[in-house]
Amino acid sequence: MDFKKLNYIERGIDWLHERFNEKQFLIFSSILVGISAGLAAVILKTFVHYIRHYLMEEHLFHFGYKYLYLLMPLLGLALTVFIINRFFKGNINKGADNILFAIAKKSSFLPFSHMYSHIITSGITVGFGGSSGLESPIVSTGSAIGSNYAKRYKLNYKERTLLLAAGAAGGIAGAFNAPIAGILFALEVLLVDINITAFIPLLIAAASGALISKIILRENILLLFKLKQPFDYYNVPYYIILGFIAGVVSLYHVGFFERVDARMKNIKSQSLRVFMGGMGLAALFLVFPSLFGEGYESIKALADLQLPELYKNSILKDFITNNWLVLLFIVCTFLVKALAVGLTLGSGGNGGNFAPSLFVGAYVGFTFALVLKLLGFQHIPITNFILVSMAGTLCGVFHAPLTAIFLIAEITGGYELIIPLMIVSSISYMVVKYFQPDSPEVRKLKKRGAIVSENRDTSILGKIEISGLIENDFIPLNTDEKLRSIVEKIKSSKRNIFPVITEENKLVGIISLDHIKKEMFNQELYDSLTARQLMKKPDTKIRGTDDIFMVMQKFEESGQWNLPVTIKGQYAGFLSKSSILTTYRNELLASL
User: Fold this and answer.
1) 409-447, pLDDT tens digit by residue?
2) Would you give the end-to-end CA distance of the chain in angstroms?
3) DSSP secondary structure string for all residues of 534-588
4) What is the DSSP code (8-state) at residue 133?
5) Considering only Cβ atoms within 10 Å of each terminal Cβ, which end of the chain, N or C, has fewer?
6) Both 269 and 398 in a single domain?
7) pTM of the model
8) How deeply is 581 buried, as exposed, middle or buried, from its count of CB atoms within 10 A (0-12, 13-18, 19+)?
9) What is the CATH number of the domain that holds 559?
10) Both 518 and 477 in a single domain?
11) Are residues 504 and 575 in the same domain?
């Protein structure tokens, strides 16, 4: 790499930064971020393509090692885990929830290493056969590019968040050559607070990423389809049923995947996790070879009705002798996809659920169409059912209906299927939202104590960490402490509230200066009254596990401006409503 050229580029951007106004520089920056994110998507897709086709098909299969490829996922997982431990300190923060966490809690700052770590590790994981997708790592990479670019040029929180989202949009647009889907993914999944002015940088970044993909990536690497049959409104009842099926399957896929992923991560030995994950995948691939890697090639084979391609390397191929057995094989394939993804990611691999959700959707759509065919219904457009079902499951898994609709519309080259796409996606979304109101990313965030909202004020409030606002300069009193001693402490205190604690540092009450004025001026009570007799039990306590929204609710309900805080049952200090509002005001000003 020529670092002198990079230095010249950096100086050139600095020169433009000085001469452009804020809006002009933001537009210029969105172009650079979009191109960079699109290029990252191209690099990752090409990297995986070359590993798959040149390492395996040109060597392993060419020299007759037909089943040796089954061990490749184990090698890929081992290499991925080694690289993460050796070069990235054992953690590279995988998943879109980490981007949301950065937006909510870290002022949209992402580590510099995320601009390349996800490309390397996910490329190895998926290239060697790991059953997961590349889109989540692409989003992480693009977001990190936008975040670090904004950090380098000292942009504010709002601009930094916008460029982070622009990087994600450019990455998705580059991965599918689908700019509209890239924009909508950034808006729906990353929950970016957006207005018309801020929408322009996202448009430009997505267009830039898609353009790079269009110029460099070959069509056989991209997921593209050509419609074979137009939309027929007579099939609307079938699309309605398919929408419900897609919603139920989405719930199944996410639930099963999360259980497998959690079980794998509970295994303490990392080596054992990798071994079990690799061998589990080998066993699955032996029966269901289309689970290998992203699975986009098998989706294309399914859409082209080349069904023998799906099981030609399966040990069951000689037993699949009629359409009903083909149907059973395909149903089993999409049912165990969640297991394959859980084994891949739970054992230490890097990837996401974007491609698997499209995979499952394609198989569900084909299954439904084939059942109708076998039951005697004629003129069923199987490919159309495959495509709209992909949108249904993508929508159900990510809670992103607009992304799903326009992604399929763009990769099919038009809007011929827009009506069935809307029908299936909306029904799937309603089914999933009924049983699971939060997306997987938001659920993970809530477990980490972070809440992300589409409302700007709520999002800024959600960034506030209460642990950093706890005030501990209140003088504590022992339960048996006499009034005489209390009066002496009041003289030296700047506070008018005093916590009463036990020897074990447990909060049992509060003494307010306003409530003991009468006793303070009666010296006859100095040696008879104790803190226990003078105190009042606190109506409300803030616990260390409470999030900022629960804290604000407690302030509102109690009518107090200072509330005690306990952490694991131990007194920790007080939290002031005014300090929260001051912090909120500072965060709001920083975001403007």
Assistant:
1) 999 887 889 999 999 999 999 999 999 988 888 888 777
2) 38
3) H-B--S--EETT--HHHHHHHHHHH--SEEEEEETTEEEEEEEHHHHHHHHHHHH
4) B
5) N
6) yes
7) 0.79
8) middle
9) 3.10.580.10
10) yes
11) yes
